[in-house]
Amino acid sequence: MAPQLQAVTEPVWLGEGPHWDHNEQALYFVSIFDETIHKYVPETGKHTRSKLDGKPTFIIPIEGKKHHFVVGLDRLVVEIQWTGEDQTARLVRTVAEVDQDNPNNRFNDAKADPRGRLFAGTMGHEYEPGKFDLKKGSLYRIDPDGSVHRLESNIDISNGLCWDLQRSAFYFADSFEYTIRRYDYDVETGSIANAKTVFKYSDHGLEGIVDGMTIDTDGNLWVANFDGRQVLKIDPRGGKLLQKIPIPALQVTSVTFGGPDLDQLYVTSASMNRGEEQLPPCGSTFRLDGLEVKGHPNVNVRLQ
Q1: What are the two backbone dihedrals, phi and then psi, of residue 243, each rounded to the nearest 5 degrees?
Q2: Do the annotations mark residue 152 as ligand-binding?
Q3: Would you say 68 and 79 are in contact if contact means Cβ atoms under 8 Å apart?
Q4: Which residues of the chain have pLDDT under 50?
Q5: Of 156, 211, 216, 263, which one is the catalytic site residue?
Q6: What is the pLDDT of residues 23-61, one digit of tens each?
Q7: Active site residue 211
């Protein structure tokens, strides 16, 4: 049976960073250029947002602190308090600042690793739509004590973070490499090593770039193909392209599994006009049902 697709939110400018909160049965995401954080509750269909003072790039709940989140805000990681109601988010504190040597950088993708450490990547300044200062970004790990560790540098756009604990693997993408990297991952220390390329867009005739990704319980990657109008299912162990699922938006930005059984895939998108208007449903968040796979629960960030 073919997957079923539905737009579940109204369009935003640059939807990104979806995080399914399994306890709340709610999806959190951001719209970077609208400077807003978002919450969508499938049971009620309610979609709320709150504006921040800066560009939010991810929103992840903090473990053990209800209504508290870490948010990437330009080059800062901040703690936000938000009950999920419209326009009620409040800045609590700054957790960390990065890339002081590149003040025009900003965060892009981020996730908590299986132990709740925050892995967060940055990117260079976008000086006009689709054009960036290259090789200015880094990948960081921010531990529960707030200490910041740079894991990689010379990155164009940090994207697509996910882990396969069973195989001690961490997957990452630098979007303008048009590839997916695999690292050896040590869950006890949070260290990564021995990067190698496991998938190349050019080997499969794919257009666009690698954006956000997630992993299913079979160890296959689900990748947002920005400028490609699709989500890709990839087996990273053999570099195989298993499936292409069309999305009615050119700029597909990220994916995460959600729903009561973690068998629905939520897909964020953008409606950026880079010389061509992106009409609705571009910019919506979509839900894919009937994929016949399941994801892992998203992990909250641990902070002392």
Answers
A1: -160, 145
A2: no
A3: yes
A4: none
A5: 211
A6: 999 999 999 999 999 999 999 999 999 999 999 999 999
A7: yes
